[in-house]
Amino acid sequence: MTSTRHHDRRPADGSPVARVCVDVPLAHLDRPFDYLVPADLAESAVPGTRVKVRFAGQLVNGWLLERTERSGHTGRLAYLEKVVSPEPVLAPEIARLARAVADRYAGSLADVLRLAVPPRHARVEKETPTDETSAADEGPADEGPAGGDPAEPAPPGQNPSAASVPPVGSGGWEAYPAGPGFLRALADGRAPRAVWSALPGEDWPTRVAEAAAATVRGGRGVVAVVADARDLDRLDTALTRVLGAGRHVRLSAALGPARRYRAFLAARRGRVPVVIGTRAAMFAPVERLGLVAIWDDGDDLHAEPRAPYPHAREVLLTRAQLAGAAALVGGYPRTAEAQLLVETGWAREVVAERATVRARTPAVEPTGDDPQLARDPGAATARLPSLAWTTARDALRADTPVLVQVPRRGYLPAISCATCRAPARCPHCAGPLALPSARGTPVCRWCGRVSAAYACPECGGRRLRAAVVGARRTAEELGRAFPGVPVRTSGREEVLARVPAGAGLVVATPGAEPVADNGFGAVLLLDSWALLTRADLRAGEEALRRWLTAAALARPAAAGGRVVVVADGGLAPVQALLRWDPAWFAARELAERRELGFPPAVRMASVTGLAPAVAELLAEARLPERAEVLGPVPAEDDRERMLVRVPRARAAALAAALHAAAGVRAARKAADPVRVQVDPLELF
Fold first, then answer.
1. Which residues are annotated as a binding site?
2. Entry cofactor note text (predicted)?
3. What are the structural domains, with CATH classification, of the chain?
4. pLDDT for res 415
């Protein structure tokens, strides 16, 4: 084995050479190694297969990247030990993409390939096309219902060709002046790039399905990524209706091992042209990729929590760039990153005219502006001001459902001393105490210990009050405010998919809002301070994203739809909501970040670990010119974080420098780990 660094030469015995990425998570070994292919493995050891090799005296897994007749090694080469499976699971396009993503995020190729290729399931590999169809229909008993079954592959002998896809008209895309042209470009095999601001009430799964159908009719494939299982279910249903059965699979980490691998193989073998899924699908292999799409790219679920921490939006845009494919970044809000694509000319806006926006938007009112405070002086402090109460009452009288969005789940997720207002903390770990129910005892949210005899360390008081109110307590309060009206909750524990007309009050946390038949009559956005006062660079952007997502479920103003946001109408996120102008807010946010030097206007990396380890890595890193090192700031436990900021033009050099420094520490067998993240969602 060796890395390929010297002049190529042909092995003495004439054996072909395999270049292998060994599955070893060490930064200084992030390069391909050469092995000889024995004669008995010559047919099965093809690029893309999983192999086993001897590395540092141990038998380790690896991916065969390519075969060649020559090696750059001047010494003796070892032979491949085994081909784990003759299935070429790693497509050449995905191998190139994985290398680009690793370089972008200062990571290792092996780490990215672990995200890109699901674990092998031998039984699934041996299934015939008939077995695949039966398994998709029945669902293996050992995998459970999580994530649902992938759509079944095309039956044996049936080719999911472009000609068999039913034609799709412009449909709802006609509401956007650039929409029909975008679909025509997809059908013609071109590569348009669009940032799409969806109208309120938009049936976005159908619009994405129509874009996918146009791409497939043009003879190319599609990868579409959404944030969670509920959105995936909606997109799955829309694709089956628009594209027809058997032409797509769904790929999600929530699927069982067999189902996920079966869906992956259906795409890798070219049996389906469309793959949809959560962030697990961002690396899905698709033949002749023609379109990548992502919905609601601001959702933090799109950020991978495992090294090297790639974001689904960035992976998909990199795929579009490498493959010459179209790109669609859609959502009700718009992120600063999407705005940067528009301002740099990389993508074009797909937006509706203002007259159309006004016709589709519900009436939005704040409770904190001067006229409202003059009518209701208590609105500045009340959790449910009179405007919100009367709006909900009017909607219920009209027999239309009401959605109430609260940012926190649970009953009372934060409590404080009723006497001195000091936050109630766990006496064991200093974590925040919460009340699980009206008659429950305080429980620590960090260690789970019960503090039945809690006494305030500041004043000795034993009475507690609510500091933050959760969804279940809100539902309890609304039940008293509107007696006789059914109140339902939708959150992480139980997510409602859809509610019928006249269903009463629905209290939901962000991301768990159900869809109502014909839309909600009223939407109340409570506890806005919890979103706006977070110590986070994206606090305003995230607040607007959550508000727009909920408000988009309301009926248009002409049909009686109203939205009440309990916030000051002069705040920029509230102004964007009132005017339904996410593009204006995104442009404003991007301009402020340019002025202050924050992503995405610049590229920034965080280095987190024990102080000596962080200092050692930064001392080893040959940072590019104009790099700024900021910090340190405290991180979790006893660690600290340093930030490194560079202009976007030097982003690649920054990632390479940090990766090389991590490699030096790994070669020295440094004991204390350091986490390197490029453009993390949380900087503070």
1. 417, 420, 426, 429, 444, 447, 456, 459
2. Binds 2 zinc ions per subunit.
3. 17-116 (3.40.1440.60), 142-156+164-356 (3.40.50.300), 360-591 (no CATH), 602-678 (3.30.70)
4. 84
